[in-house]
Design a protein that fits this description.
Blueprint lengths: L21 H8 L4 E9 L2 H17 L3 E18 L10 E17 L1 H8 L6 E8 L1
Antiparallel strand pairs: 1-3, 1-4, 2-3
């Protein structure tokens, strides 16, 4: 209280205005970077290794962070059958085997860049792309 018994009036405060930081607005223009895992599976090791090397070379040329290829254990699928179709005769057996090879590649990149990297892939190699965050 002042000597007069009147409360002093505080000076007016300036109105709060929305301020946009130029650094933050430039980040909004850039595409969001995702953690992307590319899973490659094939029965042919040579074509699988070739595709892995091409993907890594393309991503490094775009200056992306790459981890891999991580070589997963080979799956051996076996089927044992009788040689004779009728069931008579000597009991001889055939064993057929199919080996499935798998590789993992992890990238930190926008989805548009990953589409450009994956566009040309050899036949016989299956590609699965998963995006996290």
């Amino acid at each position: 209280m002042t000597r007069d018994g009147i409360f002093p009036i505080p000076p007016p405060t300036p109105p709060k205005m929305s301020f946009q930081d130029p650094k933050k607005t430039s980040q909004l223009d850039q595409p969001k970077i995702h953690k992307i895992r590319i899973t490659l599976t094939s029965r042919k090791v040579a074509s699988l290794e070739k595709v892995c090397q091409e993907l890594i070379d393309r991503s490094k040329s775009k200056e992306l962070r790459v981890k891999g290829p991580v070589r997963m254990p080979t799956k051996n699928l076996k089927v044992t059958t009788r040689k004779s179709p009728c069931g008579e005769g000597s009991k001889t057996w055939d064993t057929y085997e199919m080996r499935i090879h798998k590789r993992l590649i992890d990238l930190n990149a926008p989805t548009e860049v990953v589409k450009q990297i994956i566009i040309n892939i050899e036949a016989g190699v299956e590609v699965e792309v998963t995006i996290a965050a």
